[in-house]
Each structure stands twice: as structure tokens, then as C-alpha cells.
Amino acid sequence: MAEHPSSQVHFVDVVQHLIDEIEIRLASVPQKNGLAQCSDVAMINLHEGKDHLVIIAGVGGDLLLEMVRSIVSRHSSLMKTNRLDFILCPVRQLHKVRQGLNDLKLGLISEKIVQDNKLFYEIIQVSNQSPVSISLVGETMWDLSNSEHIAYRNIMIEHYQKQPSHQAKLLLGLYEKIK
Ligand SMILES: C[S@@+](CC[C@H](N)C(=O)[O-])C[C@H]1O[C@@H](n2cnc3c(N)ncnc32)[C@H](O)[C@@H]1O
């Protein structure tokens, strides 16, 4: 909130007591640009004439993609004049999310691998103003001089080696090409 003083920062959850806790925390910070709302995030209203960044983390890939789809389809007019970015951290179904973002014509800004509590996550920033297509395996996020990245790549390769489907074979080939 301090880094984006001219933006309204929205905190959204469907669970009222989490929003109540956020409201208490917002009241105790000097910045006054935070707004907590108990709502389905897919139904939020972003004001026209402003750029927006929506951060969605910690939800499954299917649900996350539905949320992004709904926000995009409800703000088609805003997207003609303004920038709409998303920072996304899906739990599972990563390739489906990546394909779905391409289908929505959102382009890549940046992507990175993070490890927390022995689990790996991918953080993907996309924008309606980026023309860069999103790779199914996050080609730009790998640094194979980093042992955590090697470990994550090996987990993905071992996982797809066990799957018989055509899609799994395609993903396996893409992970094996990462250098
Ligand atoms: C695992 S928590 C992650 C919380 C936080 N984003 C994080 O990464 O630490 C998932 C949260 O998403 C909320 N949630 C699930 N579906 C939602 C929806 N449609 N709209 C708003 N919040 C939702 C849940 O109530 C829950 O609090």
C-alpha cells in the first residue's frame, strides 16, 4: 500500500472473519488506501480510468482461472483503455492456468519459482498490455545453477514420466528441454 499510494488496494475474501481481521490491521497502519471487502473476488468492480493489479494466491488452478476469466470478462471496456495486471500463484493445475491465460490474451511480464515449507510454487505476472506468450513450463523462470530449481525440474520430470497421456508426454519433452 505504501508503494502504490495512488492506487486503491483491495483485500477480498469470502470469509467474513478474515475480512474483519484485515479491517483491524488496516485501521492500525498509516496508509489509508486499503479496502477490505467480503465478496467473491470474481465479482469485484475495478474503476475505469485507472490501471489495476490483482493478486490471487493460494487457490487451486481451476478456481483461479475462473476468477481471472470472470474479472477479465467483466472489465472488457476498462481493458481497452487501461492496464490490467495479475500476479498469480496457483496451487496445482499450473499448465491449465498457463494455457488459459494465453487463451485470455494475457501476456507474460515475469515468472519465478519460489519454495516455501519444502513445496514449490510458481508466481506468474501477466498483463493485457504484454504481447509475450506464456510458456506451459515457464521457460523464462529457470536458473539451473540454482539447486532448488534443479530439484523442482526433477520433480516435474519424474511426475510426467509416470503419466501415460499425450499431454504428459508433451510436458515431459518441454521439461527435458529446459537447460
Ligand atoms: C489458502 S487461502 C490463501 C490465502 C492467501 N491468498 C494466501 O496466499 O496466503 C485461500 C483463500 O481463498 C478464499 N477464497 C476462495 N474462493 C474465493 C472467492 N471466490 N473469492 C474470494 N476469496 C475466495 C478462501 O476463503 C481462503 O481464505
Radius of gyration equals: 18 Å
Number of strands: 6
Which regions have little confidence, pLDDT < 50, spanning 5+ residues? Answer: none
What percent strand?
25-35%
Give the strand line-up of the largest sheet.
Answer: 3-4-6-5
The CATH homologous superfamily name of the largest domain equals Vaccinia Virus protein VP39
Distance between the termini: 38 Å
**Could you say which overall geometry the principal axes of the C-alpha atoms support?**
globular
CATH class of the largest domain: Alpha Beta
Fraction of helical residues: 25-40%
- Helix/strand class: alpha/beta
CATH domain topology of the largest domain: Rossmann fold
In short:
The protein has 179 residues and is an alpha/beta fold. The protein contains six helices and six strands; from the N terminus they run E-H-E-E-H-H-E-H-E-E-H-H. The chain has two domains: 7-136, 3-Layer(aba) Sandwich (Rossmann fold); 142-179, no CATH class.
